[in-house]
Amino acid sequence: VQLQASGGGLVQAGGSLRLSCAASGNIFRILVMGWYRQAPGKQRESVASIGSSGSTNHVDSVQGRFTISRDNAKNTVYLQMNSLKPEDTAVYYCKATTPTSIYWGQGTLVTVSS
């Protein structure tokens, strides 16, 4: 499985961005796709995930502001981020979980200015 993340950038507080993660390879084995983030000096943390059934989970700090979704026809998972805050500044990574492996995409930097 290969993952290509995109969509990061610089945005003012209160603004929006949409991240994309395109999957290729043995995508039929993917059970869960997720977005993680890592701020400077902090550990990587989970942001949101979506299962093969379409069920979603969002961490409390982004609940109501971020939405994870997917387009099966495009093999792409999205993270719509609204009402962005400076504390959302981080490198965002997508992750795919199969029954036997975990795959990470390259990070995409999101910078939210105050």
Strand-helix topology:
Layout: E1 2-6, E2 9-12, E3 17-24, E4 32-38, E5 45-51, E6 56-58, E7 66-71, E8 76-81, E9 90-97, E10 102-104, E11 108-113
Parallel strand pairs: 2-11
Antiparallel strand pairs: 1-3, 3-8, 4-5, 4-9, 5-6, 7-8, 9-10, 9-11
| Global structural class | mainly beta
Largest sheet: 7 strands, mixed
The fraction of residues in strands falls at: over 45%
Radius of gyration, CA atoms, in whole angstroms: 13 Å
Distance between the first and last residues' Cα: 37 Å
Number of helices: 0
Low-confidence stretches: none
- Globular, elongated, flat, extended or rod-shaped: what is the shape? globular
Mean pLDDT: 96
- SSE string, helices as H and strands as E: EEEEEEEEEEE
- Count of strand segments: 11
**Helical content (DSSP H or I, runs of 4+):** under 10%
List its traits.
mainly beta, globular, 114 residues, 7-stranded mixed sheet
Q: What does this entry look like structurally?
A:
The protein is an all-beta fold and 114 residues long. The chain has strands at 2-6, 9-12, 17-24, 32-38, 45-51, 56-58, 66-71, 76-81, 90-97, 102-104, 108-113. The strands form two sheets. Strands 2, 4, 5, 6, 9, 10 and 11 form a seven-stranded mixed β-sheet that branches. A four-stranded antiparallel β-sheet has the order 1-3-8-7, with no helix packed on it. A hairpin with a 4-residue loop joins strand 7 and strand 8 (76-81). The protein is globular, with a radius of gyration of 13 Å. The protein starts with a strand and ends with a strand. The model has no long low-confidence stretch (mean pLDDT 96).
